[in-house]
Structures are given as C-alpha cells and as structure tokens.
Write a structure and sequence with these properties.
14-stranded mixed sheet, 48 strands, 39% strand, globular
Length: 827
C-alpha cells in the first residue's frame, strides 16, 4: 500500500497493527452481468495457461503429458529451436531444394514422435540471437531460409502458429564487436525482412518481435523507449504481427531490480498500445513470451522455496494480462518442462531453476534418474485448471486486491489476488442471493518469501469476508442448482490519446485529447502513465472536460523503491456523466520533472436489465478484429448478435469522418451470425487507409439514436488479398470416430459469400490419406461431403479430420476458414 504525505501520521499509527491494511477492501460481484473487454467475453485459455516447453521435449513421458494436458489443461508452448539452429553460423543457408529434402525427413520424425498425440501448433519458435544474427549477413537469404524452413519442415498439422526470430536480442547487442546501436538496427531489419518473406510466401505463422528482456522504457528520459521499442515499431512494426516484451519482477539479464507487477506493467503496455494506436490507428497485439519473477537471495541451487517465488509474480501479472485479452495474441509464464539438457552427474543432477518437474537425486540408476518430482510451480496450473466461461462483472475498490470472475453454466469462478505487502481483509458483496449455492470449492496458494508455501484444495462454506495474505491467490468455484442467466452487460473499451511522453513542468497544464468515445451508463477509469523521481508527487490535478476529478493516493503494487525512478499507471475513476464523444483531459503537477507517458480512457458501459425477468441483452460483435478490407465493390460482413426481439443489425462504412455506405439485416429473437452486405459507390482502392466500420443492433426500423448496442473499428486499410473475418464459416457436425475403410460421409455447415469449395481431408498417424470436395454457391446451408478411403487406416487414436472452405478452385493457401479435429478414434 502507498500513502500520500497528508496521511503519513495515519500510516504511522496503523503500524502498531502488525499485518492488516487500514481499511477493508470491497469486492462487488454480479454473476448475471456479462463483462466484455472490447468485444471479448469468453476466456480463451490458450492465450494464458501455457508452459515454456513443447510436447516433444526430450525425456518427457506420456504420463506426465497426460497430467499436464488432460488434468491441468495446460497449453504449449515455446521452444528454443529454429531455422538457424539447423543452419549453423559460418555456413551457407540451405537452398530451397535442400530445405524440401531435409524438411521431409524432419517432418516424418515429428509425426512419428511417441508424444505426437499431444502436439500443439500454438507454439512460439525462438532462438538465441547468436544463432541467427550474423554481422554483414545477406538478410534476404536469411529470410528466405527461415520461410523455407517453416514451409517444408512442417505441414498443416504441425506448423507453429508463432515465430519470434530472436529471444531478447537487444540486451545482447554488445556481444558482436560492433556498436550496439548498429547491431540493434541490423537485428530489427532482419526481423522485418523475415516478416515480409513469410507474408510473400503465404505462410500463416505469426511473426513476433522484438522480445524485450528489459522493458525499462522510462530510462534516460525515455530514450530507452525511443531507441528500442519505438525504433522497432517504426522500422519493422508494419511487417510483424505482435509485439513482444518479457515482464519480470527482479533483474532479468541486466538493469536494476524491477518491481514490474502492478502499475509498472500497465504503464509499459499502455505506452506500447498508445504509440501503436497513434501510428496505425489500431493496437497491435501483445505476445508476452516470458513473464514471472527472478528469484534473488535464495542461493544458486534449486529449492522448493526458491522455485515457488516466481508464481507470486506470475499470478499478479496474469490478472493484468487477463484484462487485456482483446489485444493479447499469446502469453507464456516462464515455467519450463524437465529441461533435461541441464541436469547431469557433473552438476549432481541439479535441475534448471524454472522446471515444473525435477529429477529425484536419490533415484539415480545406471547414470540416469528413474523418478521425477513435480515442483511447486505446478501449483500455478492446478490453481487455474478449472476456470473457464464468460466474464461477469467484478469490481474491487482497492487496486492492491486484483479480481477476475467467470461463469460457465451453473458454476461461477471468482479469483482474488493480493499485490499488497500487508494482509488485506476483503468483503465479498454479491448481487445475487447466494443461499442457493450448492457448494464452494476453494483453491488457495500462499507464497511466503521465507518459509514453505501453502497450497489448499478443499470444499469451504461461502464466506462474506476473506483475509488475503501477501503473496496469496484464491480461486473459488461456486456451484448453483441451475445455469446462471445473463441479465445485463458491462463493456470496457480502451481509447487512447495521441499525445504521449509529454514533459512535466511545474504547474503547467498538459492537455490530452481522447476523441470518438462511445459513452454509456456507469463509471469509467482514466489510466495516467508517468515516470518521476521518487521524491516527487504522484498525485496530479486532473480535469476531465473542465471538471476536476478525485485522484487516488494508491496504485496497483508497490512503491517501486528498488527502481531508479517511479514508472507506473494511476487508475483514476471518472463518472460517465463527465464524458462526451470528444474529450479533453488536463493534467497538472506541482513540481517539474518526469513525463506523462500515456493517457488511456477505459470506458465502461453498463446496460441494465429492462425488466426483472429479462434474461437477454441485445448485443453485436464482430468475430475478429478487422485487419483490412478487400478491394471490392461488394463487402460482406459477418456480425454475431444476441437479440431480445426482432432487430436490425446494421453495418456502416466511413472514410475518416465521411459516411460512405451502410446496410442492414433483420434478425429474429435469439442469437446467431448475421450476414450484412455493403455496396460502396465504387470499389475500394488497394492501399487506401483510414476506413472505419461501425456496427450496431437496433429496433426494426430504428435509426442510430435508437441503437441498443453499438461499436466501431477504425484505422482500417484496403488490401487486394484481404478477407473480412467471419464472412466465411466452416464447421462439421461432431465426429465421434472414423471407420478404417470405405466411404465416410460428413455434414458440412457453411456460410459462403462467394461460390466456394468445401474440402474435408482425412489424416491418419500424421499422414494425409484422402479428401473430398463439394462445390456450393454463395449462401448458408448444410452440405454433404463424401471422402473415399483408398487404403485401410491404422486403428487407434491417430485419426484427424481437416476441413476448410476455399474459393472455387483454390488450394490450402487460399483457405478462408476451417479447422483440424485430431485424436479421433479409428475403429
């Protein structure tokens, strides 16, 4: 907790109360109000609950993988092996013919791996900078080789979704005998060229960079940001898919001890988002490919006490990343597999410090460990293993008490975490009558800095007050007799001021514009990021559209006293009655020093229930963020909707502030996906920028003033090859098993905005076997697709079905939508 100078005497008086904060924190929960972050409500576990390993890691067993994947629902992963692990420094890059030949052998080995049944393509491929960066190298050839590797060493079942060419490159820039600035530039150019080559080669693997080990962006009056992240975004940003930083409490490779969790994480990510939005009129997703805590003061050797310390930091940061799911591509806490490369007889079987499972030193037989022990890091996945569903409204009045809540059917999940260094008494205020709850299953982890951790998994009575210790995380699973109904929505949308890194001068007002805000009912949050010397005030005067607002004296996390200066984001409550479409934020500090790095309005909009029995709230969402629009005369938009009655679903196209065209589709009560077709006066021109797509749901025959839910996406470009997400839909009815021979008939659900091919492929033991194609006209229906097997399949769980919708006559590279169902029983 932090206190303003005016409360210093109160803080001293409270010090005689040895463990507790000054006031009880209040957490308000409404399980019937669905919460949206941007357009995202349902938790996508694959973005958060991953492990820094792959299923084919050396010496990992089927039994261990079954526990991780099936019981703990852990996803993969990240690995240090890349094209440049194959092509060693000092040798020429393999040509395309060599890549095809060698890639076929490597692919065959992958498909035959005994752990292939747990293989996942949600894997980040990366490598140490010394393996890839070669001063004076031919970047074009390097990029060509990287693309060839991903094209020929993998197939559609195995190709990793993410490629981060270099792990933490810039902290190693001084290791090549050249000026560090020159090396950083050449590393950036190489990542940029790889991104371009992947797109030119038709690869769908996302390129991630740059992988900042040390994102202390405020250093040297923000020269660190300008010379590293900003330079990278300016130079390579247009050619990559996500921006990567590594977030650690403690010292990662270099720099001072960082207290990142809490306000510092928010300030870092807000600055990246703010600059990206100012540059591209959209936020480029984050890829947090490592995060956690660096254990200090626990010696060099492994201990459970040392191992578990990182989980405290991982949980703190996880709560923050969950609040940015709409702009998260992936995240990987730094918890590794066995890391068998590390332990051996020479180091007395000492495990790598971040492992989730370690060798039992007493089990060595014939020079090998025969038993392994799960480390305390497994508790992170145990704690979160069951959590899923849609977000629901949960609010904490104390930034040091983090909260998340989800509902899945008849089960609600409430998660609490403490950022405080003191015990926090937390009251739980549920909007519902909780006497109907059937059971409460509590998972509780407390990480102590100086003694063994506490992990509990038990049934408990539902309490109205809980006591959170420092380093504590709780996850409550509350079961009800029947499914919980959605009766209202709570939406959060971030809006960015284009002004950033403004110098602070004594009593000089800094003005920040935030235009285009959709204002609803409720209370919003203004996040003000700034860096200042520790001795300077952290409490500015803030006016929103001319009205002064109360500025809190507390922020998320600690005082950052181990850092050279404070760099954090202050969350300031703002009544929505003060907001309007175009807003001006005025900020004034009393003393000179530091900079305001970013100002972000987290606009909250609450849509209350209209009648006591109302269980449906009208809403519209796009299936995915619009990246670009096609250069076409006709534009087809898929809009997901929930309608409490017959409604109009409307899509409008604007160019900046100029209206272009609009159209609507009338839908019946219920939920589904509406297809809305727009016809601009002329075809959009390739390369144009600045388009805005607005979409809403309204009463039939209504206008924009009667919209029940409305959104927009701005900063959209035009590309000839663009496909509007969701405008093509492919799905198969449930596949329980496959016959070993004969003809297999599938029912293919589709939505096509053009004449299309519906393709179903059958794979067995990682090998393609046969496919079937049905041609359909534009429209939505269910079509049969027959696949005739020319040879007998191997029985077992090695069956897979890949299905896709493609333009008429297209191939796999022109796939518009589709998926793979693997692990199918062949009988």
């Amino acid at each position: 907790m932090k206190f303003s100078p005016t409360l210093y005497s109160v803080a001293l008086a409270a010090a005689v109360l040895p463990h507790y904060a000054l006031a009880e924190a209040k957490v308000q929960v409404d399980l019937e109000v669905q919460r949206f972050i941007g357009n995202v409500s349902t938790l996508d576990r694959s973005k958060f609950f991953n492990i820094h390993m792959v299923a084919t890691e050396n010496q990992v067993t089927q039994q261990e993988l079954q526990y991780l994947v099936n019981d703990l629902k852990v996803g993969f992963g990240r690995q240090f092996w890349s094209p440049f692990s194959v092509s060693k420094a000092g040798s020429a890059y393999p040509n395309t013919a060599q890549a095809k030949a060698n890639g076929a052998n490597a692919l065959a080995a992958t498909l035959k791996h005994p752990n292939f049944n747990f293989y996942s393509t949600r894997n980040v491929v990366t490598e140490h900078p010394k393996a890839i960066y070669r001063p004076g190298d031919n970047r074009t050839e390097a990029a060509r080789w990287a693309a060839d590797y991903f094209k020929y060493y993998y197939n559609e079942l195995t190709r990793p979704q993410f490629y981060e060419p270099m792990n933490e490159p810039f902290v190693h820039a001084g290791e090549f005998g050249l000026p560090a600035e020159q090396v950083r530039k050449e590393m950036t150019w190489l990542i940029r060229d790889i991104g371009k080559q992947f797109k030119n080669s038709g690869l769908n693997t996302k390129i991630i960079g740059y992988g900042s080990a040390w994102p202390s962006m405020e250093l040297w009056d923000f020269r660190h940001f300008n010379e590293r992240m900003k330079f990278f975004m300016d130079t390579a940003g247009a050619d990559i898919d996500a921006l990567s930083v590594h977030l650690y409490d403690g010292v990662n490779v270099t720099g001072s001890s960082n207290e990142r969790s809490g306000s510092n994480v928010d300030a870092i990510l807000d600055l990246i988002e703010t600059y990206g939005y100012a540059k591209w009129q959209k936020v480029k997703p984050h890829a947090i490919t490592e995060y956690g805590g660096i254990e200090q003061g626990y010696g060099d050797k492994y201990s459970d006490l040392k191992s578990v310390q990182s989980i405290r930091s991982i949980n703190k940061m996880l709560f923050q990343l969950l609040d940015r799911e709409d702009r998260m591509m992936t995240s990987v806490p730094f918890i590794t597999g066995k890391a068998a490369w590390h332990y051996n007889a020479g180091n007395n079987w000492e495990p790598y410090g971040a492992v989730i499972i370690r060798p039992d030193k007493s089990s060595i037989q014939n020079g090998k460990p025969t038993r392994f022990i799960w480390t305390p890091r497994v508790h992170f996945y145990q704690l979160w293993s069951d959590v899923k569903g849609k977000r629901v409204e949960v609010l904490s009045d104390n930034p040091d008490v983090q909260v998340q809540a989800f509902v899945n059917g008849n089960t609600a999940y409430l998660a609490l975490n403490s950022l405080s260094t003191m015990n926090e008494s937390v009251s739980l205020d549920f909007a519902q009558d909780m006497r109907s709850a059937v059971s409460v299953h509590e998972k509780r982890l407390v990480v102590y800095p100086d003694r063994n951790h506490l992990y509990q998994d038990r049934l408990v009575p539902l309490a109205t007050t809980v006591e959170l210790e420092p380093g504590e995380t709780r996850v409550l699973a509350i079961e009800f007799p029947s499914a919980l109904a959605v009766k209202a929505t709570h939406k959060e949308m971030d809006y960015y001021s284009p002004n950033y890194l403004q110098p602070i001068v004594s009593n000089k007002t800094l003005s920040f514009s935030i235009p285009g805000v959709e204002v609803g009912e409720g209370q919003s949050i203004l996040r003000v990021g700034f860096a200042r010397a520790h001795a300077l005030s952290k409490r500015p005067t803030i006016r929103v559209n001319g009205q002064a607002v109360a500025v809190p004296t507390n922020w998320a996390g600690g005082a950052q006293s181990s850092r050279d200066e404070f760099f954090g984001a202050l969350a300031v409550p703002v009544a929505n009655s003060l907001l309007k479409r175009d807003n001006q934020i005025d900020i004034t500090f009393a003393e000179t020093g530091g900079r305001v790095s970013s100002v972000v309005l987290e606009a909250h909009s609450y849509k209350p229930r209209t009648t006591p029995d109302d269980t449906v709230s009208d809403s519209v969402t796009l299936p995915l963020v619009l990246d670009a629009l096609p250069s076409a005369q006709v534009l087809n938009f898929a809009v997901d909707y929930v309608a409490s009655a017959s409604r109009d679903v409307v899509v409008e196209l604007w160019k900046g502030n100029q209206y272009v065209t609009s159209s609507k589709t009338t839908v019946s009560k219920g939920s589904g996906r509406a297809l809305v077709q727009l016809s601009p006066p002329s075809a959009l021109v390739n390369g144009e920028q600045g388009y805005v797509v607005k979409y809403n749901i309204r009463p039939v025959g209504g206008d924009w003033r009667t919209a029940l839910d409305a959104h927009s996406q701005a900063g959209i470009a035009v590309r000839t090859d663009a496909i509007i997400p969701g405008s093509q839909i492919a799905s198969l009815t449930q596949i329980a098993s496959l016959p070993a021979s004969g003809t297999v008939n599938f029912s293919f659900n589709y939505l096509a905005t053009q004449d299309a091919d519906l393709v179903v492929e059958i794979w067995n033991q990682g090998q393609w076997q046969a496919n079937g194609v049905t041609q359909v006209a534009a429209g939505a229906d269910v079509a049969p697709v027959a696949v005739s097997l020319n040879k007998v399949l191997t029985k077992g769980n090695g069956g897979a079905v890949k299905f896709s919708i493609r333009p008429r006559g297209g191939n796999w590279q022109s796939t518009l939508d589709g998926d793979v169902v693997s692990g199918i029983l062949v009988n």
